[in-house]
Amino acid sequence: MRPIGTRSRRLFLATLGVLIGIAGLGWAWPRLFPDPLAGGRTAYARHDWATASARALRRLRENPGDREALRLLARSEGRLGRDDAAQATYGRLGLDAMQAEDFVVVAGGLVRRRRPDQARRALEMGLEREPDYAEALHELARIDAATGRPSEASVLAERLAARPGWEARGALMLGLLRHELGDPRGAAEALGRALRLRPGLEGLSSSPRPVRRILARSLLQAGDRARARVLLGELLAGGPDPEASWLLSRAMLIERDLAGASAALAASQGYGDRDPTAPEPAPYVGSVRCADCHATIYRAQQSSRHSRTFRRASEPRALPEVLGPIADPRDRRVVHMVRRTAEGLQWEARDRDRAFTALVDYVFGSRDIGATPVGRDARGQARELRLSHYGRGSVWDVTTGQADHPTAPDEFLGKPLSRDALRQCLGCHVTNARDTSERDGPTAVDRGIGCERCHGPGGHHLAAIAASFPDPAIARPRLATADRVVALCAGCHSPRGEPPRPGDPAAARFAGTALPRSRCFTASAGTLSCITCHDPHRDAETSAAAYEARCLDCHARPAGPSGPTRVSTPPRATLAAEVRRVACPVDPLRGCVGCHMPTISGIVPHATFTDHHIRVLREGADTRADRRARSTP
Ligand code: HEC
Ligand code: HEC
Ligand code: HEC
Ligand code: HEC
Ligand code: HEC
Ligand code: HEC
Ligand code: HEC
Question: Which of 65, 178, 276, 485 would be a feasible disulfide site paired with 187, CB 3.0-4.6 Å?
Fold first, then answer.
């Protein structure tokens, strides 16, 4: 060992002296100047809010100007749920003096009053003051997750998982969010981390068993059957678990252990039959893989609008028509145009001397009805561009839902889209939003909505068919109840949030919420669903007679020689004997759709919708959205 030199020794002794001095001061300071709030603060730290608030009040009686006492009082009141009192106390403290913890407390009160948007704003202000304040990250992530913003929430959870003391909680949250966002590899990584850090997940409001099942699902989805198998073995060692057995049957199927897979399936007590529309926790394989064996369905589906409802801007002729330069339909001073540049398709909105540009990434909607470009502006912000092409009128017009006269000039380029809003567009227009946006995975090359959007990932199915396993291991809506089928279609054919009220003409846009309001649906004991009238692999039939044959499956034909329907197809719906069959007193044979499911225009420009709320309308067929005042509610 090298002896310590004199110089270093002197330095060492000096440092030691300073340290001892600081320690001594640390010991002496509170004794010289005792913190009058110390007791209150320790009480607050151990969540004894009542004592904390009592101490703060006592201090304020001694010294009404003590701002720290005011702060402690406001915090404790807020933590106790006395929101009015806390608000008043914070009013005295003032916004400028508030710290991250104070915003967390205020946000808690706003959540209790069901004002999540204001709570979000408060937490964002807290994070502006202290960017990594763990509890603010946690609360904001929770609000985002609960209000349909899982992408934003996952960014926060990732930051939370890096905060000392919050690693396990952050990783758990991150894993569950990634699972929801269809990122099985990321989910498995984060959930595995959370379970390593805290195997029993103590104090995390989740018990380990369900979390381990989700981890097993993520591993299967990611194609890591070996780890899934070990984990499921451990789970089953703890006692019978139908879901774990069912998952194990999948892991064994992939390993071609058919005897094991059958035994595990038997032990699952019918777990997989509960909902035939539930997707398999399998890897995606891409629609083209289905073509070999389901050629007819494949060809039909690939030419339907479902599969043409999305394209990338890099595809040739991505936009239905070259644009520009054309004047904005609402403000003639603004001119739009699109060019092909080295970087790609560039959109420009020019307001006299100011120009805003965006690179187009995607075009949503089949061209037949409407096509809306979505891109990124110069700052990388995603935007739904200002103009869409409407196929029926073959015109460019303002995109549905955008302001006629935007207040911010850059909104002439289009409406900004948050990460989650863009993910939602993709979620309803492609097979797998994540693969599409990451350009990764077998569904990234699917055209629009492919097979696995409705049938779930196909990896297990391919293995099952190859091994002649009796369970085809794929979602089978054919076997599902009418409610489940409607829910599958309504996942996209309903609005996000509150649907328009019955009688509001805009309600006709959303078949998924309109149809279930009909007596035909509510009174037919689970016989009617979307697939009574539609083939899910083809566009809507345009002959009214085809639908009227369906009406007559359930609505009695008049007695006598067989009613002359123009289309004779085998019945799709068979009403149960106990359901009343009523015939139309006005026309028992034909014209049903025109009178009871009229076409509505004026909801989306240059497009019409069919009112799926089947009912008696006072004025028969009516084709305008301003029917509101006259329609039966
Ligand atoms: C190697 C041939 C093959 C490939 C590839 C294949 N399937 Fe199948 N599929 C079958 C066979 C055979 C059946 C019938 C199995 C049975 O009924 O037990 C079937 C059954 C199905 C069913 C259940 C039908 C029902 O309602 O009973 C669905 C849904 C399905 N396949 C969808 C798909 C999708 C989606 C893909 C692509 C991801 C695909 N298949 C790829 C051969 C294949
Ligand atoms: C909840 C699912 C859902 C979401 C989210 C969604 N769409 Fe759609 N979109 C549909 C359905 C269903 C249709 C067909 C029926 C209709 O037009 O309402 C459609 C139709 C369209 C059309 C065809 C013409 C039109 O205007 O009706 C365009 C263009 C379009 N969507 C673009 C977008 C864009 C851009 C976003 C994101 C800002 C988006 N969609 C978000 C489900 C969705
Ligand atoms: C929009 C949702 C949706 C998409 C996309 C979709 N299907 Fe289907 N599929 C269904 C529904 C719903 C049924 C049940 C239909 C019925 O019972 O009449 C079904 C039934 C089936 C069946 C069994 C019934 C039969 O006629 O043999 C097969 C096989 C099938 N689909 C394969 C595919 C393939 C392959 C693709 C992609 C090319 C695909 N599906 C895309 C919803 C969809
Ligand atoms: C992933 C979201 C999604 C799901 C799930 C979905 N649809 Fe669609 N559907 C769309 C979109 C988007 C369009 C608009 C296509 C376009 O751009 O024209 C559409 C269009 C349609 C059309 C009109 C096609 C035409 O002729 O213009 C029918 C009919 C339809 N869907 C029926 C169904 C049925 C039935 C189901 C359930 C079995 C279903 N959809 C499930 C998104 C979906
Ligand atoms: C799956 C069976 C089924 C199909 C298909 C069906 N309906 Fe119905 N519909 C019913 C039942 C059941 C009732 C309730 C009869 C009753 O008890 O009053 C009903 C009620 C009605 C009513 C009265 C609604 C009200 O609010 O009083 C109208 C109108 C109607 N159907 C029209 C149609 C038309 C038009 C079609 C075809 C586009 C159709 N239905 C298809 C089963 C069906
Ligand atoms: C009783 C028959 C019937 C049922 C059930 C039904 N539809 Fe339709 N649907 C129609 C008719 C009729 C049209 C108009 C077709 C045409 O003339 O283009 C239509 C058209 C559509 C269109 C094209 C856009 C529009 O509004 O014209 C979509 C999308 C659609 N249906 C979705 C659905 C979905 C989703 C369900 C289940 C929630 C469903 N339909 C159930 C009869 C039905
Ligand atoms: C010219 C318009 C028109 C046509 C066509 C039409 N209906 Fe009607 N339907 C009506 C009107 C109006 C009523 C309400 C009659 C009343 O209450 O006096 C009605 C009533 C009904 C009812 C309710 C009967 C009850 O007793 O509750 C059903 C069910 C029905 N129609 C089904 C159909 C079917 C199915 C078709 C096609 C075979 C059809 N309608 C064709 C206008 C029409």
Answer: 178
Give 350's contacts (C-beta < 8 A, 6+ positions apart).
334, 335, 336, 337, 356
| CA diameter of the chain | 120
Q: Is the CB of 372 under 6 A from ligand 2?
A: yes
Which residues, in sequence order, are CB contacts of 530 under 8 Å at separation 6+?
A: 485, 486, 489, 511, 515, 536
The pLDDT assigned to 42 comes to 95
Residue with CA closest to ligand 3 atom 38: 298
CA dihedral for 601, 605, 610, 613, sign (positive or negative): negative
Ligand number, closest to the Cα atom of 514: 6
Q: Which residue lies with its CA nearest to atom 2 of ligand 2?
A: 492
Span from the CA of 503 to the centroid of ligand 7 (angstroms): 18
Half-sphere exposure of 562 (CA within 13 A, CB side): 6
390 lines ligand 2 (CB under 6 A): no
For the chain, 633 residues long, the average pLDDT of each consecutive 10-residue run is: 56 65 61 78 95 95 92 96 95 95 97 96 97 97 96 98 97 98 97 96 92 98 96 96 98 96 96 95 98 98 97 89 86 93 93 93 93 96 96 89 90 96 97 95 95 98 97 97 97 93 91 97 95 97 94 78 55 81 91 95 90 85 38 28
Cα(534) to ligand 6 centroid in Å equals: 7
Question: Distance (Å, rounded) from C-alpha 277 to C-alpha 92?
Answer: 56
pLDDT at site 88: 95
CB neighbours of residue 257 within 10 Å: 16
d(CA 228, CA 244): 10
Closest atom of ligand 2 to 509 CA is 18
Q: Which ligand is nearest to the CA of 468?
A: 1
Q: In sequence order, which residues have a C-beta less than 8 Å from that of residue 221 and are 6 or more positions away? A: 184, 281, 282, 283, 457
Distance 224 CA to ligand 6 centre (A): 41
Name all contacts of 552-559 with Cβ < 8 Å and 24+ positions apart.
552/589, 552/592, 554/520, 554/524, 554/527, 554/528, 554/579, 554/581, 555/581, 555/582, 555/583, 555/584, 555/588, 555/592, 556/581, 556/582, 556/583, 556/588, 557/583, 557/588, 557/589, 558/583, 558/588, 558/589
Predicted pLDDT of residue 396: 92
Instruction: Answer yes or no: is the C-beta of 6 below 6 A from any ligand 6 atom.
Output: no
Cis peptide before 325 (omega within 30 of 0): yes
492 lines ligand 2 (CB under 6 A): yes
Question: Residue 560 C-alpha to ligand 5 middle, in angstroms?
Answer: 22
Q: Which atom of ligand 7 is nearest to the CA of 621?
A: 2
Identify the nearest ligand to the CA of 464 by its number: 1
Check: CB of residue 628 under 8 Å from CB of residue 505.
Answer: yes
